[in-house]
Design a protein that fits this description.
Elements lengths: L1 H13 L4 H23 L1 H7 L14 H20 L6 H21 L14 H18 L1 H10 L5 H25 L9 H17 L1
Helix pairs in contact: 1-6, 1-8, 2-3, 2-5, 4-5, 4-8, 5-8, 6-9, 8-9
Length: 210
C-alpha cells in the first residue's frame, strides 16, 4: 500500500507537467467557476453537499493559518471523494486539478495577492511542478510517518483516499509557501523538502483530529 501511495504522490506532482491536462483543467475551471465559487462561498450549499465533514469548516479563530488550512481541507475532501468513485474516471483528474487551481487562487487571496482573473494562477503551476519534482525524494522521506498512519486509520476505507488528501495537502502547502515568498520578494519556488513536509504533516494531523 505504501508503494502505491508514494506512486500517487509522484503522479500528483508530475501531472502538472502534462500540458494537455493543464489545458483541460483550465478550460473546465473557466466553464464552472461560478459553480465552484458558489460551492465554497455559499455556506449553506457547502454544508449541505459536504455535510459529513461540516465540522471541519468550523473555526473559532480567523487567522491566516486557519483560513489557509480550511481552503486546503475543503479541496482535499472533494478530491478524496473523487478518488473514491468506482472506475477510472479520466475527468476526475481534470476536475481535481481545476479544484486545486481554485485552492491556489484562494490561498493567494488570503495572503493579500490579487489576480485580475482566476486563470492568472495557472502561471505558477509550472514552478510548483519543477520545485516539487526537485525535492520529491526528500518530501517522501520526510512524510514517512504520515504514510505509516494510513494502515492504522483507514480501516475498511481505501487508503488511497487518504493519500489523495495528502497529495492535495502537499500542493496546497506548496502554494502557501510559494505565494508567501512572493510577498517577501523572494523566488516563488525557494522552499525545501523539510519545511514543506513539516507543515504538510501538521495539516494532515490537524485534519485527522477533526
Amino acid at each position: 500500500v505504501l508503494d502505491e501511495i508514494k506512486k500517487l504522490l509522484e503522479e500528483g506532482v508530475h501531472r502538472y507537467k502534462n500540458a494537455d491536462l493543464l489545458n483541460e483543467s483550465r478550460e473546465w475551471l473557466d466553464k464552472n467557476v461560478s459553480k465552484i465559487r458558489a460551492l465554497f462561498e455559499n455556506i449553506s450549499l457547502r454544508d449541505f453537499i459536504l455535510e459529513p465533514f461540516k465540522s471541519v469548516f468550523n473555526s473559532n479563530t480567523l487567522t491566516l493559518k486557519s483560513e489557509v488550512y480550511s481552503v486546503i481541507t475543503q479541496v482535499a475532501l472533494i478530491n478524496a471523494v473523487l478518488a473514491g468513485l468506482p472506475g477510472k474516471l479520466g475527468i476526475g483528474v481534470v476536475v481535481s486539478m481545476g479544484m486545486e487551481a481554485w485552492m491556489a487562487y484562494k490561498i493567494a487571496q488570503h495572503l493579500g495577492i490579487r489576480f485580475t482573473k482566476i486563470s492568472d494562477v495557472w502561471q505558477y503551476f509550472g514552478a510548483i511542478a519543477a520545485t516539487l519534482a526537485t525535492i520529491l525524494w526528500g518530501v517522501k522521506a520526510a512524510l514517512g510517518a504520515a504514510f505509516s498512519m494510513f494502515s492504522l486509520i483507514s480501516g475498511p476505507i481505501n487508503p488511497l483516499i487518504f493519500a489523495e488528501i495528502l497529495v492535495t495537502d502537499l500542493l496546497g502547502v506548496a502554494f502557501w509557501f510559494g505565494f508567501s515568498n512572493i510577498k517577501k520578494n523572494k523566488e516563488f519556488g525557494s522552499f525545501g523538502a523539510k519545511d514543506i513536509s513539516k507543515v504538510t504533516h501538521e495539516l494532515f494531523k490537524h485534519q485527522y483530529g477533526l
